[in-house]
Amino acid sequence: MKWYCEKCKKIHDDDNEMCPKIKSQLAKHPEWLTEAADFTVMAGSEVFITSQLLDKTAQGINKLAGTNLSYEGTQQFARDIQVFKRLSEEPFSRSGVFSNPESAKSYFENVRKISETSPRALSSFESKLTGYGQEVDWVRMKQGEVSNLWQKSTLLENNAPGVDGVTINRFTGKEISRTTIKASKNPMTSNSTGINDVKEAIQKGTATEKDIIFGPEGTEEAAKKAGLKNPVVEKNSSGQIQDSNKRLEQKILDGQASTAPTLKQIGSKMLQGAVVGAAVAVTISTITTYVRYKNGELDAREAFESVAEDTLKGALVGGAMGAVTIFLPGGVIGFVSGLAIGVYFGKVCTNILDEIFGKGAYGAILNASGYVYGMTFNLAEYYEKIEANNRRIKADVARADELQTEIESNFHVFEQMKGE
């Protein structure tokens, strides 16, 4: 992209050069490089959503699983995985019930058996599915908003009193808002448990009337009737919540309650590779655009649209990512529907960053900010490797059984020979 710089009085071509003034600013503020990478990943994520580029990944899964997933289908698939992960991290963190699909299945089968004489056992479990499903939906909704460029929303842990999630400014760390998340498979009323919980929290001082209530359809009217003045955001109907619970329960019974171990791999340093959905290029242009946004020369929307346009040109999906060294964000930035979105740097951009920070220093800057890097490989290829390994393990187990039988047979013959 070419643009006229009022400071230099020159026209710059961001494809090949960087304004000396911006180089100087980056040298003084190396953290801006990480912020520019975050900005690029977020803009790239919107590109993947609107362009359906990640459908290629879904097609790869379809070949293996015999399914017919579209990108929307992979969103639901990833959402359910995040619910199981949340269950594993919160209510069942000590028992480890959701540490793997098999134990989750065994646990739920036991709950169903107990519910034959004690119905409250099943309703108690379903309330957890309802509540933690709504929490995941809140996080995913916030991640999908454009404001996520400068805001970060996270769920609190260990049953924090009063509120369930907070939103902060990414750059200053200042708290913007707090959210209390409520859900019910029944229509919300002014006497609903969730509404009464909010009133009680306000009375105890663990919540305020400024805190946002995030709940299913009908929450706003129910809150007003209960005398609450809190702002309300609604998502999901009682029918959608019930459908979600049924789907999650069936997945548990089918042994599909996965907590996404692939996401755990993404969060740590990789020696051989990382499982990612796609990668976007951090270029001279995207860095320049971000710094100009910081300088007030571009507003957030102008910068976002410009970077989004650039990332579409440099986006890598599927097999195109093979043998590309990329950086993966350690936090929630860079995840679209549960798939990691990474960044990579072209040779021209790397040369300029080496000039500014010193050879290889840009990697250390990103690493210090939570980015990890490694070689990538396609998600479908990863599943193929798992399938191949599973087949090999089964073959080895079968061979071991054969050898065991053979040894026992030979030992029996040996004992007979000794008897003679």
What does this structure look like?
With 420 residues, the protein is of the alpha/beta class. The chain folds into 2 domains: 2-53 and 263-380, no CATH class; 100-258, no CATH class. It has 15 helices and 14 strands. Strands 3-4-5-6-7 form a 5-stranded mixed β-sheet, sandwiched between helices. A 4-stranded mixed β-sheet has the order 10-9-13-12. The chain is flat, with a radius of gyration of 26 Å.
- Biggest sheet record: 5 strands, mixed
Measured by DSSP, the beta-strand proportion falls in 5-15%
Mean pLDDT: 78
Helix content: 40-55%
| C-alpha-based Rg, rounded | 26 Å
Low-confidence residue ranges: 261-274
Please tell me the total number of domains: 2
How many strands?
14
Question: What is the string of SSEs from the N terminus onward?
Answer: EEHHHHHHEEEHEHEHHEEHHEEEEHHEH
Q: Helical region count?
A: 15
Q: Which shape, going by the Cα principal axes? A: flat
Give the distance, in angstroms, between the N- and C-terminal Cα atoms: 93 Å
Strand numbers in spatial order across the main sheet: 3-4-5-6-7
Which structural class best describes the helix and strand composition? alpha/beta
